[in-house]
Amino acid sequence: MSAQFPNFIIIDDSRLDCFIAEKIIQNSGTYSSIKTYMDASQAYEDIKNGDIGDDSIITIIILDIQMPVMNGFQFVEVFEMLPKEIQSKFVIFLFSSSINENDKNRLGNYPSIIRFYSKPISKDTIAQIIEQI
Amino acid sequence: MEKQEKIKILYVDDEINNLTGFKASFRMNYNIMIAVNATDAMQHLSSHPDIRVIFCDQRMPGKTGVQFFEEIRSRYPKPIRILLTGYTDIDSVIDSINLGHVFRYIKKPWADDDILGAINEANKFYVSNSLLAVKNEELQRAYNELDKFSYSVTHDMRGPLLSILGAIEAAQHMDDINEIRKMLMMMKDSVRNLDDFIQSIHDYYNLNRGELEIKEINFNELVKEQIEIFNFTYLMSDVTFNTNIIQKETFRADVLSVKLILNNLLSNAFKYQKKDNKNKAVDLNILVENGYAVIDVIDNGVGIAENYLGDIFNMFFRASTQDVGSGFGLYNVKAAVTKLNGKITVDSEINKGTHFKVLIQNK
Q1: Which site from B45, B118, B128, B188 is most exposed, i.e. has the minimal number of CB atoms within 10 Å?
Q2: Domain holding B69: CATH number?
């Protein structure tokens, strides 16, 4: 395994879910940095402006689906319109407490989404994610 | 009762004398249309889709009454079919029932009372069938709504529960008591959100199914009671709350709806404050006069972006990332205002605040 662990961005409108994900990732020890956003549009702005993201280490985005103002899918849609050299610094994992058939079928349309996971996030999920990248 | 339009009845027979006799006898009470053959009958049916009863002679050249009924049944299923015949052969009776699905079988020459009785029964049957069709349509719509509703509700109830589950999992690997306390506070918020949401569903159900309960309302007491019961204290801690209630006359309205409106508008006003504002304030003004109650709820909080103002009364719509709302509150407020035949308007500017104005009529 590479010596350098990935960066993490958590995007979730629930303060508690952000906190939990942060703690679980911290406990895993397999990270270089963690940043949380409760507003997906703010995360998008920071990614677009290059305020976040690393040239040498991949950044994993833990993304909630149901959020007000900008939901998970809307985020992915604008993300996939960014220049390739920005996109290539990130991989996206989608999280939700439930998903309907429509949304499940939509997953295939977004190449930047690696996988969908049901909430709550656990240390096993983080281990799986690290293995997949 | 309103004057009802005459029931439309079609009579098909190849003998002109029968047709004119029939029309003469019954045209006072019914709108009688006559046809000498199947082609004419079809024309009547296509231009009058609301024909309720069709009488048809069995023996006609080219086509029997049973054949005619069999032919039109799939295209015009609604009119009630009655067969008239001078010949009482059992085979045609069996055919008329099995193939033509006739409602009644009347012997020629007819007695007027038999015809009147048959029309009466046929009309009752027609009306209950049509009602059933309308009810079925309503039911289908309700089912579709329920599907959407149950998906959203399931998601919104599982959300907080799964958060708490995740928190319990995370807590098992945490040693710092301060961190654990911090998480417990957030878990408390999650529980509270879930409870609010369940309360909103209860409100939603009451608004849609419940009867109006018109009672006298003393706004001073009602506001006091709301603030105590709904425990705004956790939201109100650093917000200045000003009330100005002027009630010049007795006011009567559905109490539950009025409570729901006040409760939701106030809790929103307290919830959506700017965190760093030193002078957080909520004003509640109620003026009751000239047969109306005007309720103003004004805050200097985060405000609502102009492009969302049109959507805030929609179910499950949330305009803010600041606090976890149910997306149900303002939907219920709107439903309650509508139930009271009232009006609600909103005026808001981002970072300046929001002003809701509700107008309710005295009952």
Answers
A1: B128
A2: 3.40.50.2300
| Residue B125 burial class via C-beta count within 10 angstroms: exposed 0-12, middle 13-18, buried 19 and up | middle
Report the domain count for chain B. Answer: 2
Residue B124 lies in a domain: no
Q: In B, which residues are within 8 Å of A24 by CB distance?
A: 166, 169-170, 173
> Do residues B354 and B231 both lie within one domain?
yes
**B97 shares its domain with B229:** no
> Which of A17, A27, A66 has the CB atom closest to B173's CB atom?
A27
Query: Which residue in B has a C-alpha nearest to residue A121's C-alpha?
Result: B166
Enumerate the domain spans of chain A. 7-132
Residue range of the domain that includes B21: 8-110
Q: With contacts defined as CB-CB under 8 Å, which chain A residues touch B321?
A: 13, 38-39, 67-69
Nearest to A65 by CA among A35, A34, A102: A102
Please tell me the distance from the alpha carbon of residue A75 to that of residue A114, in angstroms, as a whole number.
15
Contacts of B155 (CB under 8 A, 6+ apart): A66, A96, A97, A98
ipTM of this complex prediction, to 2 decimal places:
0.81
What's the topology of domain A7-132?
A: Rossmann fold (3.40.50)
Beta-bridge partners for B343 = B359
Per residue, the 3-state secondary structure of chain A, as one string, reads: CCCCCCEEEEECCCHHHHHHHHHHHHHHCCCCEEEEECCHHHHHHHHHCCCCCCCCCCEEEEEECCCCCCCHHHHHHHHCCCCHHHHCCEEEEEEECCCCHHHHHHHHHCCCEEEEEECCCCHHHHHHHHHHC
User: Which residue of chain A is at minimal alpha-carbon distance from B158?
Assistant: A97
pLDDT along chain B (363 residues), means of 10: 75 94 93 94 94 93 89 92 83 79 89 93 94 90 80 80 90 89 90 84 80 88 80 68 93 90 89 88 94 95 88 77 70 90 93 95 90
A-interface mutation test, from B149, B154, B321, most A Cβ less than 10 A away = B321
Which of B110, B136, B158 is where one domain is finished?
B110
Contacts of B309 by beta carbon, 8 Å cutoff, 6+ apart: B346, B348
Residue B3 belongs to a domain? no
User: CA-CA distance, B358 to B363, in Å (whole number)?
Assistant: 16
Kindly state whether A88 is in contact with chain B, defined as any CB-CB distance less than 8 angstroms.
no
For residue B344, what is the DSSP state? E
Contact status of A17 with chain B (Cβ, < 8 Å): yes
How far is CA B271 from its chain centroid? 30
Give the separation between CA A19 and CA A129, rounded to whole angstroms.
18
CA B296 to each of CA A131, B284, B359: distance values in angstroms, whole numbers, following the listed order: 57, 6, 9
R_g over Cα of chain B: 33
